[in-house]
UniProtKB/TrEMBL annotation:
One of its GO terms (molecular function) is ATP binding. It comes from Massilia eburnea. Keywords: ATP-binding, Cell membrane, Membrane, Nucleotide-binding, Transport. InterPro entries: AAA+_ATPase, ABC_transporter-like_ATP-bd, ABC_transporter-like_CS, ABC_transpr_LolD-like, MacB-like_ATP-bd, P-loop_NTPase. GO terms for cellular component: plasma membrane. Residues 2-224 form the ABC transporter domain. This is ATP-binding cassette domain-containing protein.
Amino acid sequence: MLELRNLTKSYSNERRVLDRLSWIFEPGEFVAVMGDSGVGKSTLLNLIAGLDQPDPTDEPAIIVDGTPLASLDDDAATRLRRARMGFIFQAFHVLPHLTLQQNVALPLLMNGLPQGRELDMLDAVGLGGRGHDYPHQLSGGEMQRVAIARALVHRPALVLADEPTGNLDPDTANSILQLLHQELKSSGATTIMVTHSPAAAARADKVLRLTKDGLQVTTVVNPATQ
Ligand SMILES: Nc1ncnc2c1ncn2[C@@H]1O[C@H](COP(=O)(O)OP(=O)(O)OP(=O)(O)O)[C@@H](O)[C@H]1O
């Protein structure tokens, strides 16, 4: 589904953040990415999302569904991102001037898909009946639920999540993770979740631990994820 080949990223010719990282993400796999602060976890997500460019290499470094990202022009990359990816990023805030229903419907609108599924998604995340509310009327946990609904509404093949429970209390974080896990498994999306939380990582099928020297892989044996 997604292949990384010798993915390398340096900022301003200084230290390399990612150094020849290679990995294959299988369809439907839920993978947690962990590692020390500054090791390059968010950089990895940004590169996969096409929000930042890797160092140039001879062979393609990021291949999505067999297509090298670097072979796409800006328009084609935007279309791929819009149609095939869902984001749960702090930077992709829920838009304050749109209702929850309008926020969740945005990916449908942008992909020219029929409207309607946003209501099912709001129901699925426990916010059915609140579609006409505005984001400022929500708690932090509810806001994350909206972000999850919006990330999944257009049935993306690849979901990228950066610390989806980072600023939530443990109980809320746990219920959000449970919800995310359930929605991801029912949609069959490949998921890459950056997290510092061992509890969050324990829900994943695999944990990639980025280190300054390379990559360690832990396979999480968690009956709840099978
Ligand atoms: N735009 C940028 N310009 C220069 N350096 C950057 C830029 N973005 C990130 N870095 C540096 O790259 C390194 C990796 O950053 P990144 O945000 O990917 O780390 P992280 O593993 O996600 O960290 P954390 O767990 O603290 O969020 C850091 O040293 C950071 O300062």
